[in-house]
Amino acid sequence: MNIGVIGFQGDVQEHLNMLKKISRKNREVKTVDVRRIADLQKVDALIIPGGESTTIYKLITEYGLYDAIKQRASDGMPVMATCAGLIIISKETNDERVKGMGLIDVTVKRNAYGRQVMSFETDVDIKGIGRFPAVFIRAPVIEDPGRSEVMAALDGTPVMVRQGNILAMTFHPELTGDARIHEYFISMAWGRGGYISTADVKR
Ligand code: GLN
CB-based contacts of 91: which residues, under 8 Å, 6+ apart? Predict the structure, then answer.
């Protein structure tokens, strides 16, 4: 199964490293640095990393990936989006420079944690995963999770959500040594048949 990471800017290498760590245990997992439509065509699932949402937004739009990702995700491709990535896939943002793709029914506000606590680390309890060390870096705030399922919240504010094939969080799991969220995402992709080994084909 090929997992892509949008490779223009932000925590690209960190996500690729995490996936490579998983692929040492499971050889079926392969990574693709996605910067062109042709790269996107190769992937079964996609990660949109954290970084600067206005920059990533500009580049994916320039390379035609904005519409292509939207199309593939609506066709069911699993997408995991972290921080800036979440802003890009949201339904609504408070910044007109980043038009949300509407892949998830979430309204976000950029850079909405107070200045003094713009970056911090704390444990969060994630449904189905457990306690997880969450690193927040100038994170957006999920103002309204809409119809998405809240998987984790901090002081009543959602920080991780899922809606069908879309998984998103305001923190950075790629900056910890903990691969459970990436593994969860891979199992989501697996579940929808992104990967079919000949042993699984019973017909
Ligand atoms: N502040 C960034 C933005 O709004 C997001 C921060 C991040 O991805 N760590 O684009």
Answer: 100, 102, 104, 105, 106, 107, 146
Q: What domains are there in the chain, each with its CATH number?
A: 2-189 (3.40.50.880)
Ligand 1, closest atom to CA 54? Answer: 10
Pocket test for ligand 1, best of 52, 93, 94, 119 (most atoms within 8 A of CB): 52
Is residue 101 within 8 Å of residue 66, measured between CB atoms?
A: yes
- Residues 107-141 have pLDDT tens digits of 999 998 877 678 999 999 999 999 999 999 999 99
Q: How does the average pLDDT of the chain come out, rounded? A: 93
Q: Write the residue with the smallest CA distance to atom 8 of ligand 1.
A: 50
CB 139 within 8 A of CB 83: yes
Q: What is the tens place of the pLDDT at every residue in 32-78? A: 999 999 999 999 999 999 999 999 999 999 999 999 999 999 999 99
- Ligand 1 binding site (Cβ under 6 Å of any ligand atom): 50-53, 83-84, 87, 110-111, 137-138, 140
3-state secondary structure of 178: coil
